[in-house]
Amino acid sequence: MPEGPASIGPLLELLDLAAVAVFATSGALLAAVKRQTLVTFIFFAVVTGVGGGTARDLLIGAPVFWIEENMTLLICVLAALLVWSLPTRFWKGRALLWFDAVGLAAYATYGAAKGLAYGVAPVPAIGMGVLTACLGGIVRDVLAGDPSILMRAELYVTAAALSAALMVALLLLGLAPAVAGALAALAGFGLRAGAIWYGWKLPAYRGGRS
Fold this sequence. Notes:
Low-confidence stretches: 1-6
Mean pLDDT: 87
Strand content: under 5%
Number of strands: 0
């Protein structure tokens, strides 16, 4: 039987809540960019905040994390209300990208740890981290009519994979979950930050030789 979420540790649980808050904020920010109603702000915040984690929990056989308590959805609603109340200058520019980068790293780290805690093998656990980090943002972009991040060459999924893989590796090496989580999240965020700041990209397919 899986060990369950108690084996993850309280600090990683806090990381999960932080990731929900940041991703929910990124969803609301996109609704602000699109000049949507408050209802859409809340919807985008919820979908982005819980989308990846919901798919992860269904796949690993865990109780869906936001069903049995109120905190997660309240965080999403509060994030939407906060963005709705902020002056335009607070969310213009690259705010969406930076909030998304923080959420990406935190969620990839937590998702990988939760996969391991529920008995998932190391390589699939890395996949659970990537799924947790990326799915909510992908759904958000599709609903908003924006090109999916998967169709762009910039480092995004790669940054999530770095956080997830490092988390799995460090936990298997016996590092304390809190320390492993901090290192993994910082590594993924650093790679994503470089992609935002310096335009780092993966090489695109150029076709085979004729």
